[in-house]
Structures are given as C-alpha cells and as structure tokens.
Amino acid sequence: MLRFDAERAVRFCDGLRRRDFLHAGALSMLGLSLPDFLALKARGAVNSEKEMNCIFLMLVGGPSQLDTWDMKPNAPAEIRGPYKPIKTNAPGVEISEIFPRTAQHADKFAIVRSLYHTAAAVHDTGHQMMQTGRLFQAGVEHPHIGCVLSKLRGPRGDAPPHVLLPRPIGNTGGNMPHGQSAGFLGKQFDPFVLNADPSMPNFKVPDMLPPDYLSSVRVDRRRKLREMVDASVKEFDISADARLLDDNFHQAYTLMSSAKMREAFDLTKESEAVKDRYGRNRFGLSCLLARRLVERGVRFVTINMFETVFNEITWDIHGSAPFSPLACYRDQVGPMFDHGYASLLEDLHQRGLLQNTLVVATGEFGRTPKINPAGGRDHWPQCWSMLFAGGGVKGGQIVGASDEIGAYPKDRPTTPGEVTATIMRSLGISLETELPGLQGRPIPAVEHGVNPISELF
Amino acid sequence: MPETFRAPGNTSQKVATMQTVQTSLKLSIIGFSLAMSAFFAASKLAPAHAATANTAKRASAPVTITVDTTKPVSEITVPAGGWSFRNHVIPVLTRLGCNSGACHGAAAGKGGFKLTLRGYDPEADFAVLTRQALGRRVNPVEPARSLVLLKPTMAIGHGGGKRMEPGSLEYKVLSEWIAGGATPPSEGDARVMRLDVSPKATTLAAGAEQSLKVLAHYTDGHAEDVTRWVKYSVADASIAAVGEDGNVKMIGHGETAVSIWYQSQVSFARVANPFPHKINPEVFASSPRHNFVDALVLKKLQTLQLAPSAQASDREFIRRAFLDATGTLPTPREIERFLADGAPGKRAKLIDELLARAEFADYWANRWSDVFLVSSYKLGETAMWSFYNWIRDSVAANKPWNQLAREIITANGNTLENGAANYYVMHKEVTDLTENVSMAFLGMSITCARCHNHPLEKWTQKQYYQMANLFARVGMKNGTRAGDVQVYTNPAGEVNHPRLNKPLPPAPLDGTPLTLDAAQDRRAHLADWLTSPDNPYFARALVNRVWKNFMGRGLVEAVDDMRATNPPSNEELLTALTNDFTARNFDVKHLIRTIMNSAAYQRSSKPNEFNQPDEKFYARYLLKRLPAEVLLDAITQVTGVDTEFPGYPAGTRAVQLPDARVNSYFLSIFGRPPRVTTCECERSAEPSVPQALHVINGDTINQKLRAPNSVVDALVKLGASDETVIQHVYTAALSRPASPAELRQLQTMLQETSASNAVNARRQAIEDLIWAVLTSKEFMFNH
Fold first, then answer.
1. B676 closest CB neighbour out of A171, A225, A241
2. Which residues contact A417 (CB under 8 A, 6 or more apart)?
3. For the domain bounded by B192-273, which CATH number is listed?
4. Which of A138, A336, B536, B697 is deepest in the core (most CB within 10 A)?
C-alpha cells in the first residue's frame, strides 16, 4: 500500500497500530485510486513547491493608523496621541514605538498608508470588504479571497487549502456577514475552522483523531455503513446543506488520515523558546501555527486576531467599556501583534518561505484622528494603514500617504478592492478570473478596472 | 479645509458665464424659457459681482453648453412656487451622490463640505450650502458661479469627478433654484406622503427589460414623476438587475422585488419570470387544499409554474411534526399507534396532541428565549431562571402574543417575582431598548436611524428618538435579595434627540405621539400601539417567525429583516395568516395548528421534475438540519443515554436549558445561538468540518454508544436478532423500518462483524450500525 507518511506507531487496544490505520486507510479514505493520485500529481495539484501562499492577519477591531504605522508626531497632542515614532531598519520608514521588534523587519514589509472605504463605519462592512474586496449588496455574498483560491486551486495533497485560525469573527455589532466564508461559491469552499485556542494547555485540533477505543477497521466500517444508510435518500442532494454534510465528512476523513496535517497542527513539536518568541497568546501561537501549516502545504491561512470587540481588549479603542482604552496598544494589543508578526516574518524569511508567502495585515478601518472625550478613538473608514510582506512585495517602502492629521488619503487613495487584486496578483490569480455566481451567472473575482497596488511589487 | 479652485482650464471658462446656450434638449415639459431667463439674469448681474480679478477675467469668455440627451429623462416640471429645496434640490443632491456616505454625506464630510446623509436634515444642509465657505457654494447673485454648479460639472476641480452635465435637468434644478433666490426649506413645505410605482407587478421573459415609473404623492395633493431621482435596488440579483434609471432587466427564473427609496419613503415593484415548464392546470386544481394557506400557496406556484410535490406519508409526517413542534422524535410506540389509527382526521388529532405536550412548551420556550436573549450573560442565575420560567409558563398557558408583549413592555416590580421585568435589567440603555423592542417584536432593525435616517427604510432619526423617549422613565433599584431588582416607572425623565438636543414627543415609530407633559404611562402607550390589531408590523413579524420554524424559510427572509423594501415571497399569504392570527386574538397555537394542518406543510420533501429549482415558494417541504439542541436530544433519545450538563439535574434535555452559556462543545459547534443580540442569524444549522470530526471522533456519540446503560447494551443483553436490531434502530431514529434491500445489506454486514474474533464483536457491530444511522443525512435532517 502506498504510504503518505511514516512517523510513529501508536498501540491500539485491538492490536492494530494507529500507523496502520493512517497508512492503509489513507488512499481509500480519500476515495483516490493510485492512478487518480498520480494524475493529480502530474497536474501539479500535489506538492508543487513553487505555488504561492498567503497568510492574512485580520486585525479585528480596527487599529488606529495614528498610533501604529502612520505616526503624526508634529500634529497637535489630541491628534498625535500618546505614542512616539521610532526608526526602523528601513531608511525613512518610522513606525510606532509599540512595535520595537517589527521595526527590525521593516525591510521585509511595505506600509500602505492610504486605505479607505466608503461603506458604513461599522466593523462588519470592513471585514466584508477587506476579505472579499466588495461590500455585499442585493443578497450576493462574495467569497473570502482564500476561498477563491480554494475553488481555483483545490488542496495541495491532503492539506486543506484554506484554514481559519483560531475561530470565526463573531458578533461585532452590525449583524452583517463578515466575509469569512465562500459565499456564493458554496460552502464546500469554506475555510477549515480550527475552533480551538492554540494558547490553551494541551491544545489540539478538536477530534482530529479517533479515540483509542476506536480501531481503524471500525472507523472504516462505520464510514461504509453510513453510506449504505444514506443510499436511500439520494434526492436529498437537492439541498446544498445536505451535499455539504457529505462533503464535510469527506474532508474530515482526509484530515484524519493525514500524518502531515496531524503534525502541522502539533505545537508540541515547537520548542518553548519559539513559543515565547511568538508570544504565548491566541494570536502569537496562531501565527506560529500558520507558519507550520504553510510549511506543510496549506495555501491560505486567515488569522482573526480577535473574535469580537465587546468585553475584550482589542484594537477597538473607543476608550470606554465595553471597548478598549488607548493604553492597551502599549500594554497588550501592541506587544501581542509585535511578537507574533515579527516572529512570523523572521521564520518565513529564515526558511526561504517569505518569497512565496504573502503576509497581509490589516484592520477593517482606521480611527478618528482626534482623540474623543473618553480618551479613545472611534471608527474611521476614511483612512488607515496596512502591511504587506513577502509574496513578491518589495519591503522597506511606504506606498500612499495620508494628510497632516491622518484623516484622509493625500496620495494614492487605495480601496479594499485593490487590496484583493493585490493578493490575487501575488498568488498568481488572473484579474480576469470569473467565478460561477448564482444561477450560473459569472461574477468577476474583482470588479473590472480594479488593479493591484503595483507599487508594491 | 476650504475648497480649492484647481485646474481652471478651458472647461471652467466655458461654464463660468453664459452668452449663448445651444441645446437639443428634448424634454416635453422643461420650462426651457425659464431656464434661459434665469441664466441671462445671472449673466447680466455678473459684472457687479466681479469681486476678484480671477472671476472677472473668466466672465468674458463665451460659453457653449452641450446637453446630454442620450438618457431618457422623466417629466419633471417646475412647480408654481419654483424649485423647492426640500423636494427638488435635496433629491438632486441625493441622486448625484453628493450626500452619499462615500462623499459629502460621510460623518466628517469631504473636502470641508459636509451634507447630511442622503439629505435627512434639509435645514442643516441649507445652512451649509448657503452660509459656509464664504457663500461661494451658492451664489444667488451669479448662480452660474456657485460652487455647487461648478464642481460637479468639473468646470473646476472636483475630487468626486463629474457628477452632472451643464444643461442636465439636475443642473437646471440647482441653477434655477439659486437664481430664484435660493429659497430655504420651511415647515410648510409639502412632504412626500407615498410613492406609486408602475407597473407594480410584471412578468418578464429572461433578457426582457421594463422601465419602472415612480410617482411621488405630496401632502398638498400634487404628484410628481420622480423616476429619475429614486434609488432602486433588487432583492435577488440572480433573478433581475435594475439600473439607476429604473430600468429592470430579467436575468433568471423566479420572482424578486425591486425596492425603491425616495425622500425616506419606500415602495417596491415585483418582477417575475415563470419557470420554463408548462404545467397542466389540473395539477394545481387537484392538489389538496386543507385550509386557506393552500389556496394561496398554490396560486403562487401556478403563477410561477412550479408543480407541488405529493403529500408526505404518515411516517414522514409524524417524524416531521414531532421535530418541528416539540423538538423530539416520536417513539416506535407512538409511530405504531399513529399508523394504526384509521380515522380520517388523525393528522389533525396528532397536531392537537403535540401542542398539548410539555415538550411543546420546552421547545417554544427555547425559541422565545433566543428572541429575548435569556442567558446568564447579563442576568444572574436566579434572575435568569425567573425570566425563563416566565417565558415557559407563558408558552404552556398559550398566553396570547399581544399579552406576552404587553407584559414585557409594561413590566414593573420585583424581577424575581415578575420574570418579564428582567427585560429591563438586560437592556439598560434606552437605545438598546428601542432597538431590541423593534427587533424582538417587529423583526425590524432600526439601528441605522440612531445616527441618521435609515437608508433603506422610512424610519427617521426623529422617529428613533421619539421611540427612545418612551423608555425615558424606566427606573431600577436593587432589591433585597441577590439578583433581585425593582423595576418601576419614574414620574419624570426625558431622552434628548442628540442633534436637536431636546426631547421629542414620545411616539412608537409611526404611531401617535404623546405630548411631553402627558401624564399617561409611556410604556403603556407603546404597548397599546404595539399590540393593537391595526399594528401592521407586530403580528406579521411573529407569524413570519413561526412560519419559518415549520416551513424552513420565512415568507420574509431573513425573519429579522422585516421592512417595506424586503417584501414577502407571498404577500397575500402572509397577510391572510396575519389577519387570521389577529382575529383569533394572537393565539400562537392556533397559528401553529393552521400551518401544520395545511397541505403545504404536509408535502413530501422529495422534489418532482417541475419544482427542483424552488427554494422559496413551498412547492415541497424544505430539508432542514436539526437545530443543535434538538439534534443532541435526538441522539440522547435513540441511544438512551442522557447528556450531562454541569449544574443541571440528570435527564435535562438540551432544549430545556434556560442558559445559552451552558458549556457544551457539541451545542456550540452545531450552531446554538450565543444570545447576545436578537437575530435569527445567531443560530446556524450549517454543516461544517468540525461537526463531522466531532461526530466521527468526538465524545458525544461515541461515549453514548459505549455507555453501559445504552440501547446497545440492551440489544446485546436481549440477544436481539440482526433483524430486530436493525428495525429497532431504524424506527427509533428514522421513524421507518429498513427496506428489504437495506435489511439484507445491513444484515450481511452485522453478521460478518459479529463473527469476527475481536472482543465484544457483537456489541461493536451494533455500535457501528447505530453510529452510521445517527450520522446519516436522513437522521440529521428534518425532511
């Protein structure tokens, strides 16, 4: 039997070793015959090193441009805020003092300082637009760019093409979709969601392996029995949810039978020092996990830095409860980002992965230039900054500029659609790509006439 | 930041003053001579106002205006009193996009020029246009030099680009309004009262187009054709598309609404394209009709040429009815009894029995607890129980929905004794109350109107704060016991409108306002309006929620998005159900009975050749995955092993939990709502990979199958035959016996595995069979 992996053997109570289950079952469980597998490999769907990846850091809450990557030290105190700019290892590039480690990698990333969007100033619209390139209208839910990649390229071997860490964005007040699903492409292209906190002790992917008391033989038998039972309800396939259920079972079995994926999600393989470097928190260890996943064939990883903006310390610094104060940028949120992001760039660079992995970091909007009476800053989609690293992007540069107080783009106004186009360019997806929409109507992956931020490349 | 004069090139010189106007404008009634005279009047005055060398220089250049006649223009005539700021200038600015959120309507304006979002405050906009920027925006002395004309025509630089042509109707309205003295808006202005769209409903083949025409009717009795200035949007982009000129193009099959918004008034038109089958009228005529629901469903199906599926079998019906009404599976004995009953009215009888069960109260208490956000998130344990018990008692007593609403809205007293009063403990802010009452009882989100007039609806910011002021006098103080709060009504207190900085007469949305000094209880006034049989929103929202529970899709979808611009898929049906519900004194059980007894509810879920594309007109019963709690309880029921919930007595079913925060991985990944905001969208029934992994490898099903007291145990100990095992499991889980073919196949499988050498081979074989049934689509879906 062909083996995908050969690492360790675990004793099963029925005498079989887990390795046997994982090996023997692997191909048949995938539903792949050997010729299928070879055909896939020939087509380049398996193990093609050259293909590009993306790690998308969604900085939920909306970081203030003025306190992070677009400092205005000469503006009045109520504008410039409490933090000071520091020099970086890239000449002429200064960022906030809350990111000392990131500053040492400025040669690897580019800052775009002229993002804006024109939808309502609520979190949800920004999440939609930054992850799909568009605002949802007329009942059309556009797909997350990672899901577009899943649809176009499929999985590399047994790695899910798009993984979302650690959990989906929950309620951020607007009751609107967050653009974190495959939308009209169909849920079979939704990301695989981890649904667990990698900073928790004994972290593991929930239910990724059968419990000790279930032998491989039984898992396989159950699978066959299930298909037998469902043979009588073929007509259920008219329901997208019913089709999805079967598809999910298929994906689950694929994941279970992959030693490579099991290893990818296994943070115990990393030293304590590495974990310290990334930061022992949800975001830091999600960054570490993202690196491990990309190393093992996952094409796209989305990390939600936070799940909500309520009753949690986040970038959403309105200044008063249940939101966060501005000081949290120095004390919690800033260091959390600094450690996770800098370590991710360090490691990807050191492993030679940065050149084929685009790392995008953005919030859903910026924040009001003027500090509010509660000592915070409110929502401001008129102007913000974001970071691009790797994936062919030239680091150490600044693209676009805001005005003297960071209120509006002064130079090269940049829209969410252009960000999506930029990610597509880096991933090698043609801007002309059309996706199958509702009732088969083709929908362009980006609006016609929207171009990548060419200065980045 | 001041506006800057940039790029004063040729174009600007051309438009800056006028000597000649060449036009081929083909408007039927456009008051052309009036326009001419206005422009000439302006140019005659020009030298007197040549304050700067810059403008004086430009004043000498000749001007040619070319009018864009390529677009169809509706007839808009200059009214007798001249163009009105409120009724013409603002719509023009809205149509051109000037006051959109992307441009000057942004909270901070754009380029130093800030208008109210889509013109919700004409007085403020007037002041900004005429008084700011040194009066250069609107120049009544020299209209053609007004920035509002120069910038959007790109006569001088404009960050927003070219928005109109000189000579267009929009240009004409603005310039003539300015030339006429820039009359301010006044309280006496006529207001738009209602919009008439024609055609109201139309049938179009794919690819066909239809222009809509919209008439605005004003309070002074006159009407204007505003087709050109209306904002259009289509509900389902896969069926039709609409241009900004109101031209509808049909794309797919089905029916959708095109909604229109103008000056905070809304309406819609329906466009349909029947499915491409020719179905014999006899199919509809002979389809069963059990009550008024069926005539209306069939009427819609016939219009769209969708053939209804056959009626479900008794077995299908009993499983479906149990799950939808009570969240439980029928036991094999209950199924047997039902099948044995030969009486013609046995389905109706079963429905009555289900509605009388304790499980019915559990299930619906759970549904309403979602709506009212019962959880220990904002309430302490005792208070949470007090609210939950109040809701469950209300369901058990079949408390009329209007009475339930009134008791919540007017709740006073000790929260541990009057559970309903906890509503006020959970929603302490008046804005929160305003929005939650709208959401929970009206299925309407009015949050947008907190900051500005609702962009899709008729609700204005004034109405929002009038509604908020109804809650101005809710008082609360801590009671004597832990978790106990006293809710009472203060004799005084007001909520200010934030922009006007004064309280407005309290009024429930579009209901009658109270005077500020009225002695009447404000919450009672709200309850009167809310629960009145004449309230067009209240009963409808509830009917729609209940309909969705049974039919899989709301007549209005989403059920929390009730608004005039999101019309139901079957208006006649929703109206008929609502009227019947109101006439029966808001009797929820009566409504449920009506729905469940309909032939539409009792249709098979199997599609036929002619209804496969249908997802919203009820040609067949729509499959739905069991809700998280119901699915877990069903697994418990079949395996015979209780689920333990920390802090709750053994045997508590998931659907009986009062608290959304009870720790359960199964419930959270299967989509139990967190009950943070009232929204059906909080609950998810979508399958996912983590769910599949959990049922394959997780504890929930696996541990129940292994448990010493499980059904597996019983079957092994009884020494049940393969056939008995299979038929018991099938009946208990799927409410049907295995077919002979299934039986043969599964028997072979059971024999082989039971005969293997493994320890407990028999037991494992049965476990595996039950696992397969519990994870099958047939089990996980209601069908």
1. A171
2. A129, A133, A134, A446, A447, A450
3. 2.60.40.1080
4. A336
pLDDT at B592 over 80: yes
Mean pLDDT over all residues of chain A?
86
Are the C-beta atoms of residues B436 and B678 closer than 8 Å to each other?
A: yes
The verdict on A253 touching B (C-beta cutoff 8 Å) is: yes
Instruction: Work out whether the CA dihedral B118, B119, B120, B121 comes out positive or negative.
Output: positive
* A contacts of B250 (beta carbons < 8 Å): none
Q: Count of CB atoms within 10 A of residue B432's CB?
A: 14
Query: What domains, with CATH codes, occur in chain A?
Result: 1-42+209-257 (no CATH), 53-208+265-456 (3.40.720.10)
Q: In percent, how much of chain B has pLDDT > 90?
A: 68
Shortest CA distance from B681: residue in chain A:
A175
Asked if A232's CB is within 8 angstroms of B686's CB, the reply is no
pLDDT band at B76 (very low <50, low <70, confident <90, very high): low
Residue B5 predicted with pLDDT over 70: no
Confidence of residue B6 (pLDDT cuts 50, 70, 90): very low
Average confidence (pLDDT) over B643-647 = 93
Q: What is the pLDDT of residue B64?
A: 32
CA B308 distance to own-chain centroid? 27
**A251 close contact with B: CB closer than 8 A:** yes
Using the Cβ of A402 and the Cβ atoms of chain B, whether some distance falls under 8 Å is answered with no
pLDDT confidence band for B456 (50 / 70 / 90): low
Lowest mean pLDDT among A24-28, A355-359, B79-83: A24-28
Kindly give, in sequence order, each residue whose CB lies less than 8 Å from that of residue B769, ignoring residues fewer than 6 positions away.
A225, B725, B726, B729, B746, B749, B750
Dihedral angle, C-alpha B661, B662, B667, B669, nearest 10 °? 50
Task: Please tell me the distance in Å from A328's CA to the nearest CA on chain B.
Answer: 24
Interchain pair A228, B745: CB under 8 A: yes
Q: Among A38-42, A130-134, B626-630, which stretch is predicted with the lowest mean pLDDT?
A: A38-42
Please list every residue in chain B whose beta carbon sits closer than 8 Å to the beta carbon of residue A175.
445, 560, 677, 679, 681
Q: How far apart are the first and last CA of chain A?
A: 46
Answer whether A298 touches B (CB < 8 Å): no
Q: What angle do CA B684, B687, B693 make, to 5 degrees?
A: 125
User: Per DSSP, which regions of B633-783 are E strands?
Assistant: 781-782
Among all residues of chain A, which has the CA nearest to that of B254?
A439
- Give pLDDT, residue A439: 65
Average pLDDT, chain B: 87
CB within 8 Å of chain A, chain B residues 244-263: 251-253
Cα–Cα distance for residue pair B747/B766, rounded to 1 Å:
11
Intervals of CATH 2.60.40.1080 along chain B = 192-273
Query: Touching check for A192 and chain B: CB below 8 Å?
Result: yes
Asked whether the beta carbons of residue B625 and residue A245 sit closer than 8 angstroms, the reply is: yes
- Least CB–CB distance from A225: residue in B679, B690, B749: B749
What percentage of chain A exceeds 70 in pLDDT?
89
Per-residue pLDDT, averaged over B337-342, amounts to 96
pLDDT at B548: 97
* Residue A42 contacts B where some CB pair is shorter than 8 Å: no
